[in-house]
Amino acid sequence: QYATTGCSLTLHHTEKPKHEAICEYRPYSCPCPGTSCDWEGSLEAVMSHLMHAHKSITTLQGEDIIFLATDINLPGAVDWVMMQSCFSHHFMLVLKKQEKCEGHQQFFATVLLIGTRKQAESFQYRLELHGSCHRLTWEASPCSIHEGVALAIRSSNCLVFDTATAHLFADNGNLGINVTISMC
């Protein structure tokens, strides 16, 4: 199905659906969580789409940045999104607040590479929350935007903490997460 965009595999018809679901050459969907954006396109067009259609997303340059999530006490499900640019790549930083159990909210923080799964394997990221006497750290490889935030959460490939922990590290309802990207 994706031969016109570069896939050169020839498979038996019973194997095609499984491959097509994970094929690196399938179109990329808009990776911006919390929006109902129907955009699809090539990997090369993702950043242009984000800059034009989602102008509220801030991009910071450098390997070490602070991702500031403001008003973490907002009710309901909320997404905070930011871009980090380093090593000639773009990374999408996502903090998602959602209800996991009846009345119990959790925060999920992860990093996605605007790139392929293979490219993502070349990087590591570290998320750190700092308090006066506390530190919470998570290190992992980023997912590709092909996999998305939902898969990162379902597979626990993210930093997970509850509301009490968020308040332990927050300053006046704002949560600063130190984000460091490195090459493997």
TrEMBL record:
Its cellular-component GO annotations read:
cytoplasm
The similarity annotation says:
Belongs to the SINA (Seven in absentia) family.
Q: Which GO terms describe its molecular function?
A: ligase activity; ubiquitin conjugating enzyme binding; ubiquitin protein ligase activity; zinc ion binding
Report the catalytic activity: S-ubiquitinyl-[E2 ubiquitin-conjugating enzyme]-L-cysteine + [acceptor protein]-L-lysine = [E2 ubiquitin-conjugating enzyme]-L-cysteine + N(6)-ubiquitinyl-[acceptor protein]-L-lysine
What PANTHER family is this protein classified in?
Answer: E3 UBIQUITIN-PROTEIN LIGASE SIAH2
For this protein, the record's SUPFAM superfamilies field holds: TRAF domain-like (SSF49599)
| Keywords from the named record | Ligase, Metal-binding, Transferase, Ubl conjugation pathway, Zinc, Zinc-finger
Q: Where is the SIAH-type domain?
A: 1-55
Its pathway, per UniProt, is: Protein modification; protein ubiquitination
Tell me which positions the record assigns to the signal sequence: none
Which major enzyme category is it?
A: transferase
> PROSITE patterns, per this entry?
ZF_SIAH
One GO term (biological process):
proteasome-mediated ubiquitin-dependent protein catabolic process
- Domain characteristics, as noted in the entry: The RING-type zinc finger domain is essential for ubiquitin ligase activity.
Species per Swiss-Prot/TrEMBL record: Serilophus lunatus
CDD domains reported for this sequence = Sina (cd03829)
Taxonomic superkingdom = Eukaryota
Which protein are we looking at? E3 ubiquitin-protein ligase
EC nos: 2.3.2.27
